[in-house]
Each structure stands twice: as structure tokens, then as C-alpha cells.
Amino acid sequence: MDFRQFDPEAAAILTAEEARQNDTLMMIPSENYMSATVTAAQATVFGNKYAEGMPGARYYNGCVHMDAIERLAITRAKTLFGAEHANVQALSGAAMNIAVYHALLEPGDTVMALDLNQGGHLTHGSPVNFSGRIYKFVHYGVDRDSERLDLACIAQQVRDVRPKLIVTGATAYPRFWDFAAWRRIADEAGALLMADISHIAGLVVGGVHPSPVPHCDVVTTTTQKTLRGPRSGLILCRSKFAQAIDKAVFPGIQGGPHMHTVFAKAIAFKEAMGEGFRATQQRTVDNAQHLAAALSAHGFRLVSGGTDNHLMLVDLRALGLTGKVAANLLEAAGIVVNKNTIPYDPKTPAICSGIRLGTPALSTRGMGATEMEQIAVWIDEVLHHPDDATRHNRVAAEVRELCRRFPVPG
Ligand SMILES: Cc1ncc(COP(=O)(O)O)c(C=O)c1O
Asked: Separation of 305 CA from ligand 1 center, angstroms?
């Protein structure tokens, strides 16, 4: 029976969320719309099966088709990224990073990563996260003036700290990562190099951000962000780490893989090989640049002056607004962004001085330069008139109208 008939109470909540996603601008840079194919793939009988172990070496019987689909997902992931080895079983982004640390490090080992308050991720050594409690993380940051990574300065810090592993990649850094330069820094200190490209994986596949794969020992990525797959993780590595990574995922930190998600990942990887995907990634970056230029023209200060990728950070201090207040005002007007710390933020992470905006979901909907300019006008109207509820309601109505012209795919 259709679940809408079976459980109208739950279905009503789903219908409301569908309406919210249709009628608002989804500008949180880590969010995107899956295709209808990837969405449907997750509701298949692959979810009924336990498949602990690796293809050809399972702990349960009845895994012949599990082996086939996992091998297909692995082959596609390797082809897509040009990697020597892929593990497609990680259940999420946090899990994939736990697995990599478990494979490469001993408790107490020293690791360097970007500070959470300057764009890093919780799993990159935050003291409230398992990573910061089990390993000795030393953080690097961005330069105070340029708000960019100063590689000469970081190279000196690496020489002083001598980490076993260097983690590159971020959750809120709007500039390119020069992975070749990071490799030289790691080699000089005899460190392993990892890139967590959760945010930019789609851009890498689409050829609009340099790839870390030729330079890093291990690369991790979530599959649900710019990559447009299901909510999950992917680990790529050099052959010499393959066994350690596979063993760290299972039995190291996980039980049975979610095979319905592995099925959906295989399909998402095929979609990402198409020309349409490349075009969407190019549009994502073009849109971010249009939006950044338009916001700057309206007088907003962008961290580091702009963006090279799919996201930007707006410093709200000159407006006298906190990130928390600004994100709530924008949400009421149908523009969904998240509050975010800016580098050297004087405010706490719960309040913040900035907001983080991204273009992946808008680009998936097919929006372009004209829409980015219109969105900048709306953001300007809302944030420069924080007490004008009538204006906010009008903007929300206009946002709804724009959204209807660009239906959500799937
Ligand atoms: C860089 C980075 N790594 C890891 C993660 C964790 O992913 P998940 O939320 O799927 O656990 C995120 C999520 O936003 C991220 O941005």
C-alpha cells in the first residue's frame, strides 16, 4: 500500500517538506537535490540484505548480487576520480573520516588540519568530536589579512609540528586548494596527506577544481553534496593503503553496509560521468562568482574578497547583525542559508558573525546569472531592512514565484 494512504500523519509532514524544498531557495552549500533515479534507487530490495565483508568475502550467504553491485560502484568510483582503490561502504562523511584515521593512525598521533572556526570540519580534530579526543590535532588557519591559506607559513608550522598526517579540505573555505603544493609540504615533513573533498567532489569531477587524487594518499568525500548522490561516504586511496582502509571500515568501525545506498551510489557515479553533470558543475561555479560579485556591489564584505568554488562567506559585522539573526531573517523570506563563523570571529559558533551561501542546489534547478543578481537584491533588501516584515513577506512571495519557474528535479 502507498505510504501516503497507510500513514497520512507521516505523509503530511513529507508533503510539507516537499513544499518547503520546492518553494524556497536552498542555499546551504552542503545541500543539493538528488535526481529522481538516485532517490528511487534507495527504496529498493538491496536494503533488505546483510552483506558484512567485502565482495567475494562476505560473512553471510546470499550475497551474489551484493558483490555485483558493490563491484560496479567501486569500478565507477575509481574511473570517475582516477583513483587506484575505492571503498564505497562508509555510511556517512563522519564515518569515512573515522575509518581513515583508524587505518593510518594510532591513538595519540599528531595530525594537522584546518581549524573548525576558520572553515574546517568537526571530524578534523574538534575537541568536542571523537577525532579531537583520540588524536593530537594541531590546527592551521588562514592569514588574518588575506583570509586565505598562506602555504609558506603553513609549511613552517608543519616543519615545527611534524605531524604523521595532514588533513586538507574544508566545510567553509571559498578558495582553491593547491594539492600539489600540499604534497610538497607533506613530503618535506614525511607526513601522509589526506584530502576531505566532501564539499568540492562534484567540482573536481566536473573539472572546475584541481583534483587531489594524484597528490594525496587518501581522499574522502561525502556523496550527497555537489556530487548529488545519496547521503553517504566514499574513500579513495593509493593501492598500498587499500587493505588497511577496507579493514578499518569493516570490521574496524562499521557493521553491515547499507547496500541500497551502495546501489544508489553506483547510479550517482554513472550520472556524474555525463556531460550534463559537467555543465552543472561549471554553472555552480559561474553562479557563485555572479552572486559574489552582485553581493559585493550591494556593499557586502565577502571573506577573502570572493570565491573560487561553490560557496562564499559574508561578514555581517558592518551591518550590526549576527549570523544567527541574519539566517533567520533570510529563512522567513524563503532564502535558506546557514550562520557561520568568519575567520577570527569575535562571536561564538552559536551566534557567529557571518553567513555561508552556496550555489549547488540552485544550479541543479537550472538557475543562472540573472537569478543570482535577483537573489543578491533580495538578500540586500532583507538584511539592510531587518525590521521591515512587509518587505520580507513580499520577498518571500517573489522567491516562491522564481522557484516555480525552476522546478526541483526529481
Ligand atoms: C568537509 C566535511 N567532511 C565531513 C562531513 C561529514 O559528513 P556527514 O554529515 O555525512 O557525516 C562534512 C559535512 O558537512 C563536511 O563538510
From this structure: 25
Residues known to be catalytic: 50, 52, 196, 222, 225, 231
Q: What integer pLDDT is reported at residue 351 of this predicted model?
A: 97
Q: 336 — alpha (psi -120 to 50), left (phi > 0) or beta?
A: beta
* Residue 169 CB less than 6 A away from ligand 1: yes
Least Cα distance to 264 among 93, 67, 70, 14 occurs for 70
Which of 195, 207, 208, 275 is closest to 234 using CA atoms? 195
* β strands within 96-249, DSSP E: 110-114, 136-140, 165-168, 192-196, 218-222, 233-237
Architecture of domain 39-272: 3-Layer(aba) Sandwich (3.40)
39-272 and 275-405: identical CATH topology: no
What confidence tens digit (pLDDT) does each residue in 8-67 have? 999 999 999 999 999 999 999 999 999 999 999 999 999 999 999 999 999 999 999 999
**Residue 1 scores a pLDDT above 90:** no
Residue ranges of domains in the chain: 39-272, 275-405
Which tens digit of pLDDT belongs to each residue from 75-102? 999 999 999 999 999 999 999 999 999 9
Mean of the per-residue pLDDT values of the chain: 97
Instruction: Tell me, in angstroms, the distance from the centre of ligand 1 to residue 167's CA.
Output: 14
Q: Is 196 in the pocket of ligand 1 (CB under 6 A)?
A: yes
Collapse the DSSP code of 215 into the 3-class scheme (helix H, G, I; strand E, B; otherwise coil) and give the result: coil
What H or E segment, with its residue span, contains residue 362? helix 360-364
pLDDT of residue 208: 98
275-405: CATH number: 3.90.1150.10
